[in-house]
Write a structure and sequence with these properties.
Length: 60
C-alpha cells in the first residue's frame, strides 16, 4: 500500500470539508433564486385558467 504521509491526508481532509461546506451552502441558496422562476409563471397559468371559466370573475 502506497501512502503519501500525514500531511497529504490532512490536506485531502481539509479539501473535502471545504467541498462539502460549499455544497451545503449552494444547495441552501439555490431554492431562493430558483423558486421565483417557477412561482411567477405558475401564477400566470392560474390567472389564465381562472379567466377562461364562465363566471370565474376574470377581467373581461
Amino acid at each position: 500500500m502506497n501512502t503519501q504521509g500525514p500531511l497529504a491526508t490532512l490536506y485531502v481532509g481539509v479539501a473535502l470539508c471545504c467541498f462539502y461546506i460549499a455544497l451545503v451552502w449552494i444547495n441552501s441558496l439555490l431554492p431562493m433564486f430558483l423558486q421565483p422562476l417557477f412561482i411567477i409563471p405558475a401564477t400566470w397559468v392560474m390567472e389564465a385558467i381562472k379567466g377562461q371559466r364562465p363566471g370565474g370573475g376574470g377581467q373581461g
